[in-house]
Amino acid sequence: MVQFLSPVRAADAGGTSGNGAASDTLIILPVRSFVLFPGVVMPVSIGRPSSVAAAQEAIREGRPVGILMQRDATLDEPGPTDLYRMGVIANILRFVTAPDGTHHLVCQGEQRFHVEDFVKEKPFFTARVRRIEENDELTSEIEARFVHLKGQATEALELLPQVPQELLAAVNGASSPSALADLVTAYIDISPEEKQELLETVDVTARMNKVSRLLAHRIEVLRLSQEIGRQTKASIDERQREVLLREQMAAIQRQLGEGEGGNAQEIADLEKAIAEAGMPDDVEQMARKELGRLRRMPDASAEYGMIRTYIDWLIALPWKLPEEAPIDIAGARNILDEDHFGLDKIKRRIVEYLAVRKLAPNGKAPILCFAGPPGVGKTSLGQSIARAMGRKFVRVSLGGLHDEAEIRGHRRTYVGALPGTIIQGIRKAGTRDCVMMLDEIDKMGRGIQGDPSAAMLEVLDPEQNGTFRDNYLGVPFDLSRVVFIATANMLDTIPGPLRDRMEIITLSGYTDQEKLQIARRYLVKRQLEANGVTPEQVEIDDAALQAIIRAYTREAGVRNLEREIGRAIRHVAVDIAEGKASRAEINLAALKDLLGPPIFEDEVALRVSVPGVATGLAWTPVGGDILFIEATRLPGKGGLILTGQLGEVMRESAQAAMSIVKSRAADFGIDPAIFEKSDVHIHVPAGATPKDGPSAGVAMFTALVSLLTRRTVRKDTAMTGEISLRGLVLPVGGIKEKVVAAARSGLTRVMLPARNRRDYEDIPEDARNRLDFIWLERVEDAIEAAFEPEEEAASAMRAAG
User: Fold this and answer.
1) Known catalytic residue: 347?
2) Is 695 annotated as catalytic?
3) What is the C-alpha R_g of the chain?
4) Within 13 Å, how many C-alpha atoms sit on residue 432's CB side?
């Protein structure tokens, strides 16, 4: 394409060549993506301090400048090797500083030059140059090319809409072949690199040939563009004619009483569907209003499809409330027991919920939220509730949602608008009293389109959701009979007002015995079916399942356990499929060949075998876990070094533990002089994992006393609790998850704050039976219970030595 710039030829510019025309030393002005040609006046924008200084110096001395283009336009400070060697000598006609601080030059190209070498680079470039003289000898061959090129340039300009007359006059008034070639090159739409190539083409014949080829291509593009424009206009005119004819035909049919147009049967079907949908009066009034608009609108209209889709949504929604099936409490209890092992407290709460729904079906039931680590059965509990109530189940995933319109829907003014996920879920279920699982409610985000958790406030409030208004529908929809059940892994990320509208039911991790029963009852059966084998073909004994639980998985839920069981079954399924075996038994001896060496080992006995190491208990979003506190002493001046990606609260716990040990050194049999000549380093392994919280205080204190008294902490004992500077052991959270993790790791004793006795009933019975509980009031209680007896410790030290 040819650019829309008004040229000023050298003959019309009124400038002079400047006093430096005879000199072979020039001030050089580097430019980005711009090529100036002799005989052309063009604006040049400059911004670099060196370029501004160069221009000011040239104006001050009345000298021309040499315009050179950079090879790489992204460089802010180009060197001599970053510039092309061929450029144009230019006179500066005007220097303008804009109000925003940018500088602009109006330059007139004078003559090509070639840089022989650069004289200096600071404060601006100067170079010795060789001027290149133009050969304007007019042979018959050059004159023929000159006439042909002028005709091409004129044709290209005439194909342009609103061509500048100055440019057309400049082309027609070109006096020499080289001037015409340079003028056309300056204003044709090609890349700066192509323009630089033409600038460096000194031979006039070769230059005119190149410019002629470029112009021929541009003329062909302009012709095609004009043809496409004519075709598009004809297509639009034809469409407008068709719409007009359709409107006239519809008007004629209405005058003759021959129906309401071509869509008469469709309108009649929609009217019948609206009457049978059972909508509330205000909704039916809205639907009939939109149907009236549809009746008066030609079906070729773009808005016709939008209105038709809206009416279809209103008709498809379940406005009628079906007859509620009676809830069988005993049957519901059997369904819960059939679908889930354990979770007695959770099942009892669900049975209570169903009993209240049975006794008060029109009452405002609470919104349940199952919170717990992944893989403990939150989603499947919702499916069991739907089965127990005899209702349809629909799942709505909220994970990663960051647009409020995903909940409330998009307004119909937008192209492709749809209702929100809540209304879509209701339509999918086909009933207004379904069980809707709001999965991963803790993972909703917030974006520039609004906060979806704020939109969920109306959905989950029994006082408001009876008149829930979706932006797309524009009419209220009653959600009060929907049984909402939410799931979450963490409660901290759920906004307070939203969490306040739900009743939180916490599911903790499973013990090893519970996992064994779940695997035996559900997981093995499911994986046998998934891998195409029968219980008669593949059998897994309990010892193998226990080994998979303890040595190949370590989790709160059972997802990885099911994956490992499936992996073992797939290994033996290959032999059955190949006909090498008709039956396979997976036992403890075969596990290493099927699953490889054990992934997890008993770290407690291995790590807690020297003084200065204690086993702590931690809570994570995916369940409880054990962690090791390691302390060592090294020469120093009483400093405390903390490593392991510890958070601020955990660091303060370590400092508090150190202060208690120092203040009571004599009571614990520690020489106070140790602190003056030693530094203590506390490290919590798994350094890549951030850790924080006050509950490691007891473990840090015990590790420090163990280090300084050279006594070993019992390897069967784990501990948790916050400490105060007075030596009190304060309560902490997550007791249930921490105790389950201790039992899962093979420990037999746990030390807990005495003020956490209230959490004892929440601990699973299996974990309570396998552990001894030591309740701590003060740090002295921890010292008394944590260490090996003196005789055993001494023998252990001798054995280690």
Assistant:
1) no
2) yes
3) 42
4) 20
